[in-house]
Specification:
Helix content of chain A: 40-55%
CATH architecture of chain B: Orthogonal Bundle
Strand order of the largest sheet of chain B: 1-4
Order of helices and strands of chain B: HHHHEEEHHHHEHHHHH
CATH superfamily of the largest domain in chain A: Response regulator
Number of helices of chain A: 12
CATH topology of chain B: ABC transporter involved in vitamin B12 uptake, BtuC
Number of domains of chain A: 2
Strand content of chain A: 15-25%
Oligomer: heterodimer
Shape of chain A: elongated
Radius of gyration of chain A: 22 Å
Number of strands of chain A: 15
CATH topology of the largest domain in chain A: Rossmann fold
Structural class of chain B: mainly alpha
CATH class of chain B: Mainly Alpha
Helix content of chain B: 55-70%
Order of helices and strands of chain A: HEHEEHEHEEHEHEHEHEHEHHHEEEE
Number of domains of chain B: 1
Structural class of chain A: alpha/beta
Chain lengths: 370, 333
Amino acid sequence: MKKTLIALAVLGTTSGLAQAQEVVVKIGHVGPLTGNIAHLGKDNENGARLAVEEYNTKGITIGGKKVKFELVGEDDAADPKTGNIVAQRLVDAGVKGVVGHLNSGTTIPASRIYNQSGIPMISPSATNVTLTQQGFANIFRTMANDAQQGSVIGKYAASKLGKTVAIIDDRTAYGQGLADEVEKGVKAAGGKVTSREFTNNQATDFMAILTKIKAQKPDVIVYTGMDAQGGPMLKQVKALGIPAKFVTGDGGCTPEFIKLAGDAMSEAAFCTQAGLPLDQIADKTFKDRFKKRFGADVQIYAPYSYDAAAALIEGMKAANSAEPSKYLAALKKVQFKGVTGEVAFDEKGDTKFGAITMYQYKAGNWVALK
Amino acid sequence: METLLQQIVNGLVVGSVYALVALGYTMVYGILGLINFAHGDVLMVGALVALQVVLFLQKAFPLLGAVPTLLIALTVAMAVCMALGYIIERTAYRRLRNAPRLAPLITAIGVSFLLQTLAMIIWGRNYHSFPQLITTTPLQPVEGVFITPVQIIILVSSALLMTGLILLVNKTRLGRAMRATAENHRVASLMGVDTNKIIATTFIIGSALAAVAGVMFSSNYGVAHYAMGFTPGLKAFTAAVLGGIGNLGGAMVGGVVLGLVESIGAGYLGSATDLCHLPSWAQSASLIETCANGGSFELLSSNYQDIFAFVILGIVLIFRPTGLLGERVSDRA
């Protein structure tokens, strides 16, 4: 009996001390860390991790207590079913906010789980329009959506690059959604869509659909999907001797794409990004800090992932609470200078400052077009 | 016409890679009745080892030239995969040879995950671009039909390898021992055949073919990645079943047929089911706008590329449950 009392007393004092020292606030991150776009998932996670680590060095106090943020990284393997499981796991682990997921196809189903538990979720890369149109108050994103991106691609392809456009998508929520918007954009610019073709996000051989497209002689081929397919696809466009220009969306706008397409890269290759180019973002030192911390180059959305994590923390600071129910209102109104520029959300949860940048391949790099 | 020819060329190239991998599945199945699900991942290991060797040689011996570099890389990759095939057989399957069938199947899947995870740890998550050692500038044997030198090499070398394997199984002492083991390994061992050695040899040969297929795959598409073995593995398994699993000729026929079906399916399924080509449909109120100005309304499009291949597989299995060439059991090896 005596022993128990002492044990309890010891327990009481240690936990009391811990409280006086600091409170740990968990922030979740979800992206594919395995599978064929794991490099992009890691890129996003590193962005969020850098934000959390940099805020920790600033020594933030919330509700009078010193706070230590902790990033809980989960892997959804770009698979919607796994995405839902890990979303539930994060909710059960008591995270106060989530950065993610990466793919639209995993983010949309998972957003329902975060909505039911009232935890704010900010995606740094899920561009599908539907995400923020479900009427969920706690769902946000830090970059422009596919309606904006698709219309830029479609109009550019049909007015600057040619008249006839063939569109290929990878049948994911992202690829399909973006392809639909591209088709609208092409038609709005007075161009013609010669055909819509489909592949999947595991494929490496596109010879059959490209041969079919070749027979229709389009001026431009648009591919809406990830770099892992886009690079080899461009290679096969060259192997078949197709003279069309090649445009891909943000999923292909990576250094990885250039490596994979190899000698098929030429000035006939274009891509878009739902955001600003790395050398035009507000924080000029971000690129070097990222490289120094992780020893890797930024792929695409790491800065947007940084800002998503930063927005959660800024929201908590403004509300002086890390409780989702208390800081959600502050998060909706948050406005601060992030690494990408000003960060603020509209009433749906979309970013107020969404930019779309068109790139052309020149001398070994994607170069932003003005 | 050149579109059709091009689709046939596409199909043959993909099909011969499938066939090479399918041989590995079918040889193991023929002898052990086991589906070696790790086979696709052996292909991946072959490709990544070859990549590593190519990168090393390019740095250490830049004057070596493209063809010797690729040949050395291929040899090393084959050696590594042969050792890997032996280790897999020895550690994961041999002890389970008399266990219920489900047990080795589960270990096969386990080995597949293990190889993928190890490759992810060693080579990272990123896609690697495979150096283009042989020119990819396409040739035009017929006006409008394009084929790259890499694709020609794939076609020729897989035909040679397959002929070689058939000769090995049917004409040599080792082949006779393999066929005997396939028919009944207990009786074969009573006749003085070292069945353990024969089974290990089967795994080693299959893994060497997978390594070649992996190098071909990577040189053709210019990519290598730790998860790259999954899709060709699945397709090759389908090809082996289509041709009649356990039958060497069947695996080759199955691979080529599957490649052609996929390619022609993706190329023509759309226009074949285009409702705008049917006058009665095209005039109907709901389609008249879509079909105007050469528009199309495709009922089934390249969306159904993979499904189409599996529908063919289903139909073949309904009418010939043992696959296209499945009944010639005596040829199993």
